[in-house]
Amino acid sequence: MSDPVEYEIRGGVAVLTLNNPPVNALSSSLRRGIIDAIDRAAIDRAAADPDVRAVVLSGRGRCFCGGADIREFGETPVPPSLPEVIARIEASAKPVVAALHGVAFGGGFELPLGCHYRLSAPSARVALPEVTLGLIPGAGGTQRLPRLIGAEHALGMILSGEPVDAETACKLGILDAVTDEGGLVDAAIAFALDRASEGGPYPTARGSVPTEPENGFFEGERKKIERRARGLIAPWHCIDSVENVFRLPFDEGLATERELFMECRGSEQSAAQRHIFFAEREAQKIPGIPRDTPVQFIETAAVIGCGTMGTGIAMVFAEAGIPVRILDKDSGVLDKGLQRIQQTFAGAVQKGKITEAEKDTRWAMVSGTADMDDLKDADIVIEAAFEDMAVKREIFAALDAVCKSGAILATNTSTLDVDEIAAATNRADRVIGTHFFSPANIMRLMENVRGAKTSPSTIATVMALARRLGKAGVLVGNCDGFVGNRMYHHYTRQASFLLEEGALPGQVDTAIYDFGFAMGPFAVGDVAGLDVSWRIRQRRAETRPPDERYSAIADRLCELGRFGQKTGAGWYRYDNGSRTPIADPVVEDVIRSVSEELGFQRRDIGDDEILQRCLYTLVNEGAKILDEGMALRASDIDVIWTSGYGFPKHRGGPMFYADRVGLKTVYDALCCLADIHGDLFAPAGLLEKLARQGKGFENV
Ligand code: 3H9
Predict the structure, then answer these.
(1) Contact status, residue 65 vs residue 18, Cβ threshold 8 Å
(2) Cβ of 66 below 6 Å from ligand 1
(3) End-to-end CA distance of the chain, in Å?
(4) CA R_g for the chain
(5) Catalytic site includes residue 110
(6) Are the beta carbons of 191 and 58 closer than 8 angstroms?
(7) For site-directed labelling of 190, which of 71, 164, 540, 560 has its Cα 20 to 30 A away?
(8) How confident is the model at residue 507 (pLDDT cuts 50, 70, 90)?
(9) What is the C-alpha separation between 511 and 220, in angstroms, rounded?
(10) How many CA atoms lie less than 13 Å away from 160 in the CB half-sphere?
(11) What pLDDT is recorded for position 45?
(12) Percentages helix, strand, coil for the chain, rounded to the nearest 5?
């Protein structure tokens, strides 16, 4: 095995190179290796290597360092800790210069913050993304960064976890200089020798005097995250810890940061968020399709349909720098759609998210057409037309005739049979579902639906494309509603049954929101529009088993023209243009009359029952999906639900959540519910089997 830290002396400088592929995660052996190398080179002038005048710390491979080894957080900590490693660097009598390329994230950024100087290649990015893993920076990040760049910028980085590019980092005072892309280590060596010639003491972040933020700054920050961080531990601890910079001496601040970090590290929330981190990466691995399967590089794309979905998808391509042409036969719809895109890009400039130049670059990627011939050179066409099989088949037959032979034809259908659509073409191997979620330019999920004949190379290409588009791509099987919507159907249906039995929309939504969902099912319905699912229910009416329990409340609302926010009324009512849901007596009347018709004696329904019935039905359907092979693994379902349906990441997704509750508990609860409410709650075979074996979905 190669050395985790390479040690080489170049012109009087010890060059330490982190070597732990793929991202130089700071495993215990790497931490030990850094301490040994620093001791050897520099810890104190007398004992250390006399040939060495300075130290450069760099990384091998694609990046400097991706941070602490996240896999170790599930285990007992092994010394030396990262704070110990950094303390050793900071105490070095010889100057230590970090040379950053690629990413320097988390502990991989805290390490350079403990060095005396930091240089980087132009492509480097620094970040403290710990909060996205339910953690706070635990190796001095909350104490050193504010001392270098002030509390405002530091807390901004810590709470968002967003990376900062080299140029900005240099302006902020994080970096001492940005070098040429190729000559980073040489430049760092020269820089280190110059500093050594000047002599010490060398600057440290711990020695910088922090500038006090304005009065009330921290309270203001707490207020800002109130909604987003409800129920979470880490973001609040981040603020507390940064505030300690101005309350406590450095070493006390560091010790408190460590305590807060360890609390987060041991929490269920962080375990759940780490699960999602690895689940998203696991979802990229498709059995039978090796990583080196040749993929087609998508240079140009086209989208059919210039409605909300089509424009959203087009924006995703434009943002990723892929030229995209949108086709709509209706010139009015096309013009409106293009205008919407332009407005969205302009809005992003106003919000300070992109520059004017970036907006122009994005807009230059988008063009419109009404002529299908214009799509003949596209590498991929994504159809986002009306959800109707005949319409889709007609489009696919036409596309097949026009598009170049290698082009992938994808459908954004959310419910229809991908094989039936593919059968309208002579290239079923190049037909696939790419199910984006609305609004497509914001929601991260991309459910890729494999048809019976979809080729491995088409799958590999679309999975790689999802990554390039910044989406969480998950491969699923071709069944009604695929994975996400199929489960969603059971969840919302259950929510409606609760209304029939005694609950009201606000009560259900509050219970689900308090659990951590972004919104409850009824609020979501009003945003998405109730007419869409009404149409789907009408289409399915003929095939619905007559004895199956069916709630007609949503249909009644639609019959009253209540389609959600867009009509100012749905499950709630909305004051002029406002998006704040207000409980509406009209809805309560509809609910009460349906309860009466069905002969329900309305009763008080507690939040526990709401959660159990909504969440356990979700889990139960997930188990069936898993058993049928429609999802490759339980963790894929968790990615779908956390990135597409607002399931709280700190609960890890429905399947992880069920494992934590214990499948035996879930199974027993479903059996009780089935006794009261009938077969709808009958536990899935897989769930029963795992519960009996004392296993979890993670063992499937
Ligand atoms: C921290 O640092 C705490 C400290 O404050 C305090 C400590 C005391 N550990 O994403 P990719 C694996 S918390 C272990 O596909 P990319 C990943 O699972 C940490 N493994 O590549 C995957 O494995 P596989 C703060 C890690 O080029 C492979 O590397 N740091 C880690 O698209 C490739 O990953 C973060 O939150 C890790 N830290 O992106 C950064 N990182 O091939 C987390 C990656 O088996 N990491 N792996 O599936 C990232 O954001 C991205 O992985 C990175 C590379 C940008 C680094």
Answers:
(1) yes
(2) yes
(3) 32
(4) 28
(5) yes
(6) no
(7) 164
(8) very high
(9) 28
(10) 11
(11) 52
(12) 50, 10, 35
Tokens of 580: 């704040």
Per-residue confidence (pLDDT) for residue 46, from 0 to 100: 54
Which pLDDT score, from 0 to 100, does residue 47 have?
Answer: 60
SS (HEC) of 120-156:
ECCCCEEECHHHHHCCCCCCCHHHHHHHHHCHHHHHH
Contacts 24+ apart (CB under 8 A), 326-333: 326/302, 326/366, 326/367, 326/368, 326/369, 327/302, 327/303, 327/368, 327/369, 327/370, 327/371, 327/372, 327/374, 327/375, 328/304, 328/368, 328/370, 329/370, 330/306, 331/370, 333/306, 333/307
Q: Are 690 and 663 in contact (CB under 8 A)?
A: yes
Could you tell me the two tokens for 130?
């710990």
Atom of ligand 1 nearest to the CA of 63: 56
Question: What is 381-406 written as a DSSP string?
Answer: EEE---S-HHHHHHHHHHHHHHS-TT
Query: Ligand 1: which of 18, 20, 23 to mutate, judged by most atoms within 8 Å of the beta carbon?
Result: 23
In 3D space, the residue among 671, 672, 663, 669 whose CA is nearest the CA of residue 690 turns out to be 663
Is the CB of 67 inside a 6 Å radius of any atom of ligand 1? Answer: yes
Assess if CATH 2.60.120.260 describes domain 485-629+662-699.
no
Q: Is 133 in the pocket of ligand 1 (CB under 6 A)?
A: yes
Residue 669 identity (one-letter amino acid)? A
Any atom of ligand 1 within 6 Å of the Cβ of 130: yes
Pairing of strands 164-165, 125-127: antiparallel
| Rounded Cα gap, residues 178 and 681, in angstroms | 61
Q: Domain 301-481: what homologous superfamily? A: NAD(P)-binding Rossmann-like Domain (3.40.50.720)
Q: Where are the domains of the chain?
A: 5-265, 301-481, 485-629+662-699
CB distance 57 to 112 below 8 Å: yes
- Ligand 1: atom nearest CA of 132 is 36
pLDDT confidence of 70, banded at 50, 70, 90? very high
327 CB less than 6 Å from ligand 1?
no
Residue 406, exposed/middle/buried by CB under 10 A (0-12, 13-18, 19+)? exposed
Is residue 229 within 8 A of residue 236, CB to CB? The reply is yes
pLDDT given at position 148 = 97
| Amino acid symbol at 608 | D
pLDDT in tens, 239-274: 999 999 999 999 999 999 999 999 999 999 999 999
569 by DSSP, 3-state: which?
strand
Rounded-to-integer distance, Cα 62 and Cα 20, Å: 11
Calculate the CA 35 to chain-centre distance. 34
The answer to whether the beta carbons of residues 69 and 78 sit under 8 Å apart is no
What is the fold of 5-265?
2-enoyl-CoA Hydratase; Chain A, domain 1 (3.90.226)
Query: Residue 233: pLDDT band by 50, 70, 90 thresholds?
Result: very high
The confidence band for 679, taking pLDDT boundaries of 50, 70 and 90, is confident
**Mutate which of 31, 70, 128, 284 to test ligand 1's pocket (most atoms within 8 Å of Cβ)?**
70
pLDDT-derived band at 541 (thresholds 50, 70, 90) equals confident
Identify the pLDDT of residue 532: 81
Cβ–Cβ < 8 Å for 575, 582: yes
